[in-house]
# Entry
Amino acid sequence: MSEANWYVVHTYSGYENNVRANILKTIENRNLQDQILEVLVPMQDVVEMKNGAKKQVSKKMFPGYVLINMIMNDDTWYVVRNTRGVTGFVGPGSKPVPLTEAEMKPLGINIEKKVVVDFDIGDTVTVTNGVWENTIGEIKRIDHHKQIVTINVDMFGRETPVEISFTDVKKMD
# Structure
């Protein structure tokens, strides 16, 4: 399992939302949902005074930058780097540097590590932790956003769906 990290991509100023939309489209077209997990243009609400009236508006926190939560490999690097409007990753030379947890915390972005799994719907897994420990079940649904799988377990002679965290299941060979 590879680990996803947050990276900063430099864009032409004013193209942040276009870059985000283009990357999301490419993720869908190339089926990279399990490698590029999130693409964000961080916004903040500010109060502006115009003609004596207060108005609340959303402004980009970092004009010219887009944050991407992804697994860095040749494919994902190529897809992001060659997106129209992207000038490059932030980092020395051509080597992207992931953001640290300390750098992510002030942004208010969830810094939980995304777990990339090597199982699919229909696979048999063993629960390794919690109330259902040592229970064996078949995966019926995978929710990458919530980082959970739904498995069916036998309870009182009935198949019952149970949601288990990615980190608490292990694929059976």
